[in-house]
Sequence to fold (323 residues):
Amino acid sequence: MILVTGGAGYIGSHINKMLHQNGYETVVFDNLVYGHSEAVKWGTLEIGDLADTNRLEEIFLKYDIDAVFHFAAYAYVGESVKNPHKYYNNNVVNTLHLLDAMVKYNVKHIIFSSTCATYGVPEELPVIEEMRQTPINPYGASKLMIERILEDYHRAYELNYCCLRYFNAAGASPEGEIGESHTPETHLIPLILAAAAGDRDNIKVFGTDYPTRDGSCIRDYIHVTDLADAHIKALDYLKNGGKSTSFNLGNCTGSSVLEVIRAAKEITGKDIRAVFEERRRGDPPILVGSAKKAERVLGWKPQYGDIDTILEHAWKWYCIKRY
Ligand code: UDP
Fold:
């Protein structure tokens, strides 16, 4: 049995689906603060909060857990700057509860949902795993702290881990039954699609004077189904005795905000009004990751790498969700 914390959320629900496609049984543990019960279409949903250690114990006693996939976290960068307590408490303290339960119940493998936000403004591009991690907001810092804790728990308690540092997760399940749905929504692609659907008047472009090819920020968008595939491979790797380590998950290519808007116009066939705004605080100009290590060690290669496919799947989901 695999425990998927945060499995009702955007990324967690896609991994939960793929675990089932690969023959695993899962129990999803989610407090449903940001997650959606209807996204848990596979396995068993147990509603609960990692802050509640008694409830957590119940789960470890009730199920014979072999490994944990840990997605439960808050992930709004701006909010983390305004309310760091919320992030350190939920992301770091509650992860300690989870890890302590794993140690107590002798569960040896964890796949941890980390982020390129742990790098801050990267020294070089594309970002490789060995680069200095100097996060520029409490969200990124909270994820980096967990990475450090995992290293120490590995040394002290033989807990095996893979930290997967995602670049910009995007897209939706190609079959269209799950996808991205945040409240509030702050991410570029769902906001662009909302503008395409007429649910918003426009899309704001945060910054037009970045040192990039068209002045807007460049990000490495990675399909959520490709992310899911990397998680399954990371678990296989650990089960086969692979050394605990971290992997970047990205496409090694970037799209600018304006390029994503242009591609979305093509895919949706709709007009999308762009409004130029000031830079958003804390945004590095370019974030593009090298996933060579994941390719070499895990044998992972993204299948849905191009931005058009990502947008196509996200649009299909947006239209299904809307009606
Ligand atoms: N962005 C934008 N308008 C929006 C939301 C985002 O121009 O309404 C930009 C943002 O500045 C960044 C990129 O789109 O350069 C991706 O932002 P998102 O919030 O989707 O992900 P992040 O890179 O913050 O993880």
Q: What stands out?
A: The chain has ten helices and 14 strands. The two ends are 35 Å apart (CA to CA). The first strand starts at residue 2 and ends at 5.
